[in-house]
Amino acid sequence: MPYLSVNTPLKIQVEAKEQLARELIAAYSEIMQTQLWRPNVGIIEMGDGNVVHLADDALEPIMMVMVEYRRGRPHELRLQLARRIAKACHQILKFPEKNVLIEFTPHDGNEIYRNGEWVADWTPGEATTK
Known about the structure:
It contains two helices and eight strands. With about 130 residues, it is an alpha/beta fold. Strand 1 (about 5-10), helix 1 and strand 2 form a beta-alpha-beta unit. The protein is elongated and about 45 Å long.
């Protein structure tokens, strides 16, 4: 945790997946004020026609990004992160930015297991520690 799950209709080359994962990790760490080692990224290729919404009476492909995070960040930071995620998906994967939808789900630290323990709740000073 945090976990960013990118559900995409695209078939993506490994190099592009790695580039996107690195950008999402950097963006999350910087904007959400945490260490680089914390964010985890999953890129799930759902296939053509499997991630859609209805637009103008026709189904349109979307990319759905689910962001699981430890609560405590102001909504302005989440909005800044959402914009950077959408931009990265557009720049790296050439997917329309308007079709990148992002949902945030907050969690307490005691809902996240890592390395044999519950994780600590988020604090603003976390970004300065290793």
